[in-house]
Amino acid sequence: MPTTMPSADLIVERPEGLYCPPGDFYIDPWRPVERAVITHAHADHSRVGHQHYLAAAPAEGVMRSRLGVITLQTLAYGEQIEHHGVRVSLHPAGHVLGSAQVRLEHGGQVWVASGDYYVSGATSDAREDNLTCAAFEPVRCHCFITESTFGLPIYRWQPQHELFADINAWWQANADAGRASLLLGYSFGKAQRILAGVDASIGPIVVHGAVEPLNRAYREAGVRLPETQLVTEVTDKASLRRALAIAPPAVQGSSWARRFDIAGQSASDAFASGWMQLRGARRRRAVDRGFVLSDHADWPGLQRAIGATGAQRVIVTHGYEAVMVRWLQQQGLEAGSFHTEYDDERQDAEPPAAAAPDAAENADGAAATAALPAPPPF
Ligand SMILES: [Zn+2]
User: Fold this and answer.
1) How far, in Å, is the centroid of ligand 1 from the Cα of 156?
2) Domains contained in the chain, CATH given
3) Does the pLDDT of residue 303 top 60, yes or no?
4) Which of 116, 174, 202, 267 is 20–30 Å from 24 (CA)?
C-alpha cells in the first residue's frame, strides 16, 4: 500500500509505478493512470491505457505507431513546463530514439529519473555514442534514479567501433562463402543500431516485417540508415547469399528464417545483446555467434553516469539493485532501491500483439488523433 506519510521526496514508489506527489503524475507507470511521463517507447516503459502521455518529441512517431491513438504532449529536449508547481524537463538518455531522462525541480530539490540509458563507460569519444539517437546528457541533481540492467562488474562492453568491425568481418566471411547472415536483435533500437553500424557495401540488407516500421520512424526523425528491403521485395533470390538479414529473436527457427537457407547452405546466425557476454546465454541461444551489443550502460558506464550527476542520493531500479546499492554506499553516497516492473532485455522486448507495429499501421493513428480535441496541458 502507498504510504500516507507526507514526504518531501519528489518521486516515490506506488503500486502503479514511480509517482511524483507534488506534481500528481507518474513516470513509466505499469498500471493505467491519468498522467504518465514516458522515458521511452519500449513496451515495458510505455504501456497502453494512460489518459495523458508526456514524452520527448523524437519519441512521438514510435509511440504512436506502437500505442495507437493516445493523448500525447511532447517536449523538445531541455524544454521546461510547470505542472502543479513542479518544473519538468526531458534530457537525452542515449538508449533509443526519443529516450529521455526526466528532470523534476520543486522546493529547491532536483531529481532525475533515468529510465533506460546508454553511455560508454570507457571513453567520452563521440564515436562510442549510440549513433541512432541523441547522446546521453548528464544532468546535475540532488537525487538520481538509475537503472541497473547490467549493474555487475562483469559487464564491460568492448568499444563499439571494434564490435562493428567484428560484425562486418562475420558478414563479409559469410558473403564470401555464399552464405546468408541472420542477425537477431530487438526490433526497436537494436535493429537500427546494427543498421547504422554495419558496412552496407558488403551486400543487400533484408529486414523482418517487425523491423521496417521502426526503421521508417527513425528515418522520418532524421536518423540515417542504409537501404533495407523486406524479403518479399527481393527479386533476385541468389542475392540473398550475400545478404545480412536482421530480425527479432522470436524468428529463430521459423519459416521466415529458413528462407535464408539457400541451396543446402544454411545461414550463419548470430544474436546481438548485452546478455551475450554470458557464456550460458550464448549456449542457450544456440547461435553461431554472439555479439555483445547493448543499448544499456555497462558497469563502468553506470558509474560514470552516476558520478556526472553530482547526486548525493541515488535510487537504483530494475537490474542488480543490491550490488549497485552496496557499491554506491561504499562511495559514501546515500543509496536505496525502488521495486519496478520493467524487464527490458530480460525478455524479448517486443510490443504485445495488439500494439504490434503492423496493427497500429492499419489503424491510421495519425488521422484518428487529429480528430480529437487538443489535450489539456500536462
Ligand atoms: Zn528500454
Assistant:
1) 19
2) 12-155+296-370 (3.60.15.10), 160-291 (3.40.50)
3) yes
4) 116
